[in-house]
Specification:
- By secondary structure, chain A is mostly helical.
- Chain A has helices at 2-17, 31-57, 64-81, 89-108, 113-131, 137-140, 161-184, 187-197, 199-204, 209-235, 245-258, 263-278, 280-290, 299-313, 317-334, 336-345, and strands at residues 146-147, 237-238.
- Chain A is built from 16 helices and two strands.
- Chain A has a two-stranded antiparallel ribbon.
- Chain A is globular and about 55 Å long.
- The mean pLDDT of chain A is 82.
- Chain B is an all-alpha fold.
- Helices cover 73% and strands 0% of the residues of chain B.
- In chain B, helix 5 (137-159) packs antiparallel against helix 8 (183-209).
- The longest helix of chain B is centred in the N-terminal third of the chain and has 31 residues, at 2-32.
- The chains are: A mainly alpha, B mainly alpha.
- At the A-B interface, helix 5, helix 11 and helix 14 of A face helix 4, helix 9 and helix 11 of B.
Chain lengths: 350, 301
């Protein structure tokens, strides 16, 4: 545990130092690359939110795109109509999304498994329409959406917009990650996981399952909503049709690839889906030119195939799968007795 | 009044489509307890197959039959190859696989046939068909075709030995296996039938909503609503539920329109169709998850 914690600190330190290499390596640490990494971190926060709900509390959500949209629109409306500074919109988006998530968690209490998936699926499909609702048009700008300004570095810091954005999002991500790790490591976190593993047993142990489930829904929505708010200031634009069902699919692929019920896996998953999404063009030209197929291969074909294949081969996701492999390897080197111990320590596949 | 009748009639036509997709969902749900989130995209894919056949010069009804048969085969293959190994997997894995299928069908259809919206022909003669002023020729045709398909399915399940075996396999797999029903194949057959019924729905609705890879999103949502209203474990109820939400959808838009005319206040209209479906889904799921005709299943802890 301590060694992995040390590595985490090294990683964070590296993440803080790399953008400062810009004067030395202007081609490698370009503004575009920094922006790409910023979107990856936003994705990681969104997937982290979904993981808190699905991975650690066992409630399936196919509709987290909805909370992302609520967060993004809350931030955009506050910046556009009330001229709020971009950083002040984060707590506002978190509170709004917590309330929305909590309220959605109430009917979700009566739903399990497939039914909850169905209800959240319906939510994800309906979101773009709700955002276009005529009465909200004055606020949301209807189909056109809202155009915003990109945040600039404060106090005259000698940073470009993208550099500043990178630091801003990095700090938010580290804080949120730290908070999530602490929640999960507390009594409440153990209660959340107990509900996931055996709801009735958790109930008889005196855990208020209804309260924990709804609050987890709220916290999860708040995380994803913060990611949405960050994306609104990063892209400096929100429009209803960018919050379609496929956004929720992206969160799901992040969750599944990274590992259901793994915090660091959420970060890996977020990075992964942004990478694939961004290489879709290259992928398509590769298929066309090098394989000679007349297809416009989109990222979603890759996502879809991965979703299915991972469910067969690595239901614990890449992080879980690698962990499992390393454990196996180690124990086979140590021999029989150690193997047994490692087997007991392995996380159960869910 | 005439307007009202028109709305009811076109609601019934939409309802027929929802009923078909709802029935497809129920057929899979009853036998495997899975909710097939990819049902709509499978139907969309079948519709594209029929479009492709027609663009190669095949006549409408031949293309229709070929596409339905191909969809049946595709459904069987998907069950045998992709879902069979996951039979005892946790719910989340199953849901993830369905979403994967959805993404694959959607993106592959877009890759092969592009995301441009295409016109889709109506097979029904324009004149001397339909009731003037109440229901258009295509809508009446849709209702007739779906009723024929539903009738055939009913007859199949009610009067043939194979249909009986399939029902047995769905209701009590262990006992069915003991009396010599090949339960695994019955499930695959159910998948094939569901895909075929979905294909009928897709081909019938394509003339109304036009052909594009995302055409079934809203329809699938209404089919879910219909299946839930009728009771997701009850085929007859799901069909009726499909018709109910079809009419309800149009009634809500109609009422919203009348209110706007009378008072000038816009409350609800065509732009809120999916939101209405969302509200129906959540309302039914929380208030009466078994639907109108469904039986409440008691789970033993």
């Amino acid at each position: 545990m301590t060694s992995s914690k040390k590595w985490l600190w090294v990683l964070i330190a590296l993440a803080f130092l790399v953008p400062l290499l810009r004067p030395v390596l202007p081609d490698i640490v370009s503004d575009y690359r920094l922006f790409l990494v910023s979107t990856m971190m936003i994705a990681a926060i969104a997937v982290l939110g979904l993981n808190l709900l699905t991975g650690f509390n066992g409630q399936i959500s196919l509709g987290h795109g909805a909370f992302y949209a609520v967060g993004a629109y809350t931030a955009a409306v506050l910046m556009d109509h009330l001229n709020m500074p971009y950083w002040a919109t984060l707590p506002a988006a978190a509170i709004v999304c917590f309330i929305v998530g909590y309220l959605f968690g109430l009917p979700a209490l009566k739903l399990e498994g497939h039914y909850l998936a169905l209800a959240t699926f319906a939510l994800a499909l309906a979101v773009p329409q709700i955002l276009k609702y005529k009465w909200l048009e004055g606020l949301t700008g209807g189909v056109q959406g809202i155009v915003l300004n990109k945040p600039e570095a404060p106090f005259g810091l000698p940073l470009t917009e993208d550099q500043w954005l990178y630091y801003y999002i990095l700090v938010v991500m580290v804080l949120l990650y730290w908070a999530a790790a602490n929640i999960l490591n507390s009594r409440s976190g153990r209660a959340m996981m107990a509900i996931r593993d055996y709801a009735i047993a958790a109930d008889t142990m005196g855990i208020d399952t209804a309260l924990y489930k709804t609050v987890t829904f709220g916290i999860s929505a708040a995380y994803t909503g913060i990611a949405g708010a960050l994306s609104a200031s990063a892209i400096a634009f929100v429009a209803p049709d960018s919050f379609n069902f496929f956004l929720s699919i992206k969160f799901l692929i992040g969750l599944v690839v990274g590992g259901i019920g793994s915090l660091i896996g959420s970060v890996v998953g977020g990075i992964f889906y942004v990478l694939v999404d961004n290489s879709a063009q290259a992928l398509s030209t590769f298929v066309k030119n090098d394989l000679g197929l007349q297809f416009d291969l989109s990222a979603y074909t890759v996502f879809g195939i991965l979703l299915i294949v991972l469910m067969y081969l690595m239901p614990m996701g890449i992080v879980g799968g690698v962990y499992y492999l390393v454990q196996n390897l180690r124990s086979s080197m140590r021999g029989g007795r150690a193997r047994q111990q490692a087997a007991e320590k392995q996380p159960a596949a869910r | 009044m005439e307007q009202f009748l028109q709305q009811v009639a076109s609601g019934l036509a939409n309802g027929a489509i929802y009923a078909c997709v709802a029935l497809a969902l129920v057929m899979i749900y009853v036998s495997t307890d899975h909710i097939n989130f990819a049902q709509g995209e499978m139907a969309m894919f079948s519709t594209y197959i029929s479009w492709q056949l027609m663009s190669w010069g095949v006549s409408f009804w031949i293309a229709f039959i070929l596409a339905v048969v191909l969809s049946f085969v595709l459904g069987v293959v998907i069950e045998r190859v992709i879902l069979r190994p996951l039979h005892n997997a946790p719910v989340l894995s199953i849901v993830v696989v369905f979403i994967g299928l959805l993404a694959i069908f959607n993106s592959v259809a877009g890759a092969i046939w592009s995301y441009l919206i295409k016109e889709y022909p109506s097979p029904f003669p324009k004149s001397s068909f339909g009731i003037a002023g109440v229901i258009g020729p295509h809508q009446l045709g849709v209702v007739l075709v779906t009723l024929i398909v539903l009738g055939l399915l009913f007859a199949f399940f009610r009067y043939t030995p194979l249909g009986l075996a399939m029902r047995a396999a769905a209701q009590n797999p262990q006992m069915a296996r003991l009396v010599g029903v090949r339960v695994d194949w019955m499930l695959a057959l159910g998948w094939g039938l569901a895909a075929a019924v979905g294909a009928v729905a897709g081909i019938m609705v394509a003339h109304i909503v036009y052909l594009d890879p995302n055409m079934m999103g809203g329809i699938l949502l209404y089919a879910f609503a219909g299946a839930l209203v009728g009771g997701i474990g009850n085929p007859g109820g799901a069909v009726l539920g499909g018709f109910i939400v079809g009419v309800l959808e149009n009634m809500v838009a109609f009422a919203g329109n009348q209110i706007e005319k009378a008072s000038g206040i816009y409350i609800i209209g065509n732009g809120e169709k999916l939101t209405v479906a969302l509200i129906i889904v959540i309302f039914v799921l929380t208030v009466r998850p078994a639907g109108i005709f469904g039986r409440v299943v008691v789970k033993r802890v």
